[in-house]
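Q: Sequence in, structure out?
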Amino acid sequence: MDFTERLEMFLEGEMITVDDVRNVNNILDMFKEKYGVTLTEENASTFVSHVCAAFYRYSAGEEIDPLPEEVVSEIASQPTYELSVEVFENIMKVIEKPFSEVERGYVLLHINNLIQLLKSEGEWN
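A: Exactly. Output:
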């Protein structure tokens, strides 16, 4: 299943804007085009929800606490970390709202978890 319903619900609840929907779709397209991976509600709902929340915080000027250093170290020690950084950099190329350095940590966490999930399910080679 795609993210149409989730994005419409977030849009109706004024959690995201039409521009944010376009940015999320740009991210989904990038995953498909660059990595051959189709993100769905079943495999990427947490990731997409976090991205939407990050876009909301950006628009609202809200800040969040950085990830604890031990979490950052744990992410960086994962075998998928370098790929996660590459994916993050490719995401930054297709969105209009930049992620702050603090958000970067959270997005990397979610990308890393997403890649590990997709690899374990044979959806990422």
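The CA atoms of residues 15 and 60 lie 10 Å apart.
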